[in-house]
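During the reporting period, our protein records have gained a structure token line. One record among many is quoted in full directly below:
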Amino acid sequence: MRKTLQITTNASGAYDDDGRAKRTGTLRSAVAHIITAVIGSGVLSLAWSTSQLGWIGGPVALLCFAIVTYVSSFLMSDCYRYPDPVTGKRNYSYIAAVRANLGERRTWLAGFLQFLTLYGTNIAYVLTTANSLRAILKSNCYHKEGHQAPCNYGGSLYMVLYGLVQILVSCIPDLQNMAWLSVVAAIMSFTYSFIGLGLGIATVIENGRIMGSLTGVPAANIGDKLWLVFQALGDIAYAYPYSIILLEIQDTLESPPPENQTMKKASMISIIITTFFYLCCGGFGYAAFGNATPGNLLTGFGFYEPYWLVDLANACIILHLVGGYQIFCQPIYSVVERWASRKFPDSDFVNNFYKLKLPLLPSFQLNMFRFCFRTIYVISTTGVAILFPYFNQVLGVLGAISFWPLNIYFPVEMYSAQKQVGHWTRKWVVLKAFSFACFLVTVVGLIGSLEGIIKEKLG
């Protein structure tokens, strides 16, 4: 009887080939998820990064990272199914793909690095949100008291408030149920990017000239200049890649057409859009302020007026990062909750769901383990952000840690294994050279960013 029922249900199209509920994601929803993940706090530091690299190095670096990100996403898209990228068994996550293609040993390393990067990105989002909340208060204060007024506000309280919001939003079960949140977040990211771009253009027009130089901000000596260049590369590396959540996004797509084809199109569209914004925001921010470019374009107060527009931009950042935080924490939630369910199949605490109805809200299902774990996770990211409130340096470290191993090394190795690329063939040499060049970028970015954190901590 049970088999007959399953066949009938599947025939009705309610389930996919793996027995899970029918996926309904489209090219549009995938682009929304990607833009929500990519155009985040990293875009706000690109003007500063461009100022360190100059008018030649800045745009070239942004374009190079865009190309690298697309190549990485192209390789990863074919790893969703194994062994055949169209008809093979689904890999629901980055870790599952590594396990299927490269074996258990490298899975542990990939899992550790992925979780570290996702966790670190959530910390960066807590920092960015607090900076934007403070910027709104400062903007209003400067408007009333003058630009020289001592408008100082602490950040810890606003980090705690953001954490409370994330505890509530974390009640959303998974990515499949938050396409609407990604759409809202993507709209917010476009809004504040356009505002930052518009303010930069207006400032350039007001100045009557383009600020900056070919080589960027001068430093006291070559050593200091190298540290800043390295840190800028780390910041740009953080701003682009999304390979660590690509397969989770791809797992939401309907089929046909094949998921890898849709994902490649979504990646191309998203990277073109984000690169355009990055070049505009980085370029016009540097053109507006030159050597005085702030570390965070919208919270560093290069722009004071119109104060209400600065407030609106920062409010959009806050709303965007509410959704962006969830894009990066949901893979961790999913892995931990699936593990707990397998480990404790008879536990009511882990497996039972209770229907709740609160005033003015729709009814929802509450699982005690999910609620407790997600709450502890949010509290921990908030606590670390309070301890290390160094925006640009934190972004640089996160970008350097994740850029090569997660976005380059593992995608290259998985693609090579799946396609059975022979050693010392032309394709093998190109892939290895690509991987090694990106490894060098990771090393210099990590060194520069760690040096920046140490200097801030000691200074």
Confidence is low (pLDDT under 50) at residues 1-12. The CA atoms of residues 347 and 355 lie 18 Å apart.
